[in-house]
Every structure is written in structure tokens, then in C-alpha cells.
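Notes from the 1:1 (GR / supervisor)

We went over the backlog. Supervisor wanted to see one worked example end to end before approving the batch request, so GR pasted a single chain during the call. The sequence is below; no edits were made to it. Supervisor asked that the structure be written out right there so they could see what the output format looks like.
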Amino acid sequence: MMKKIVSLLLALTLALALTACGGEKKPDTPAADPADINLYVLAGPTGIGAVNLRARAEAGEALSNRYHVTMTGANDEVVAAISNGQADIACVATNLAATLYNKTDGGVRVLAVNTLGVLSILANGTESLGFISDLRGETIYSPGQGANPEYILRYVLEGNGLDPDKDVTIRFVGEGSELLTVWQTEPQAFIMAPQPVATTLLMQNEYAEKIVDMTQAWDNISGGSSTLMMGCVIVRTAFLDEHPEAVAGFLTDYAASIEAAQTDLEGTAALCEQYGIIPKAALAMKAIPQCGLTFVSGAEMKKQLSGYLTVMFEANPKSVGGKLPADDFYYGA
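Structure output shown during the call:
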């Protein structure tokens, strides 16, 4: 009998020791289920960062969520898709993000900046400028009258001591592709072009050169208070509130897609042609390094993007939807 009691005590002691040391299996914390995310992207630079994510999703690779990607060439389609809940996340221009935030009473949040400046000033066979102030008396062609390109151009000219209305002649075109024929009639004119139009102009004209990188010119003026941030990723606030883990997973997947675009130029260029982001892979190969691909989030995003939107607001309040977004616009800041 004594031996049985000792054996029982030893067994009980061993069981207690195993429990104390974690021998007893604790219930697993259930992992968040992957969500279905409808992602909308625009053709052009703001859509480049998503092509590797789209390719991985279509190949069935392991990702944080199930992604359904729609590409469009029209801002209006993205606005409608976000507004009616058809799109959960979208890649858009930063001022459009601010406008949507105001239009929907906080119905969207900005998750990250994905594109810096994509604008540059080109010359065709003229003597290189020593300073931007040397543009005095010249003619500059640009797209985007009453929109970001005009306000960016004015900010850079004014920051270099030029009055945009008196010291230069600015001639606006309806869209960037119209810039491709400017030098046929005015070979001495300067052209401010977005990507990939700028790269196309440089490839088509033997003596053409980029004389001003507008992103660098902006930085030289702002002194660190803002950065030329032209593209971003937004999410519907309702979707974020319902699926916070899915959104966090998206940011991980999307950051990896941006990194792949930066490191695998050839593969990304091929995908840009495949998905219609940029017409030809050869053009994309040359344009992508000039597209300012980036991934900036959190407090740094808020600091730099809010500064940029302030410049847009001061140029024209309508450019950001009538007022600057509140702090809750900036996710994770």
C-alpha cells in the first residue's frame, strides 16, 4: 500500500511539474483569416508598385490576403469604386486621397506613400541651365492646368525667384501625351513632363536631356518641411475598422511588392507591359528608376505628406477638397 501511495504522489508531482513548465498544451490563439481585398490601381507610376503583388496573387503564392486587382486609367472610376464600397484599397494621387477624405467625411485613410515626384523639366539641344532661375524669359510646356503639375511648377519657380505669371511663359496641354509633339514646332521650348512621357521624349530625341528633377528642386526649397509626394495607397475606413489585421498584412505584402519593383527592374518592367501600366517593357525599364517608387508610412509619412498637401492647399484649396485633412487621415502616425 505504501508503495502505491508513493507512486501516486510521484505521478502527481510529475504532472504538476509538467504543467508548471508548460507541458500542458495551452489553447492556440486563432490566427486572423485571410481577407478578400479589392485593390484598384491607376495606370502609370502610382500603379507600378502593385504589379509584383498582383503577379504573386494570380500565381497563387502565399500572401496575407486574397487580392483582386483592378486597373483603370480614370480617376473617376477609382473615386466611384471607393465611394460605393466596390474598392477596399486603392493607389491614387495624394491630393485625390485628401479630396476623398473630405468628400466622404473621413471615409478613407492614407496607409502609405508609394510614389514621390514623377515630373522633370526637359530641354532639346539647348545649353544646359546653371540654375532654375535661368528659365527667365523662356517658354515651358506642361500638363495639368489647375491641378498638381501647375502648382508644383509654380512652387519651384517661385522658390527660385521667378514670377510664373511674368518671368516665364507657361503653356498648358490637355494631357501628357500631347507633349510628344511640342518640339516639332517649338524645338527651343522647355517641357515639364511626367513619367513615362519624359522617358519617351528622351528616347525619341537625340539631343534631349533632363535639366531639372522636380523632386530634388522641391526638396531644395522645402528644407525638409515637406517632400514631393504624388502617389499613395488609401483604404476605406469602414474596411480598416472591420479588418485591421488584413490591412496590416496588406502593408507587409505591398512593401515587399515595392521592394521587388526596386530590385527586379527587368521582371517588373515585363509585368508593367503585361498589365498595361506602361505600354512597353523597354520603356518601363528606363522609366521605372525615374518614377520615385517608395514606401513611407507612419509618422514620417504624416510629416512629409501633410507639408506637401499644405503647399497644394495654399495654391488652391480645391486641390485637396477644400480643407486640409485631420490627423486621423494618416494611418499609423
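Supervisor's comment: The chain has two domains: 36-117+228-329, 119-222.
Batch request approved.
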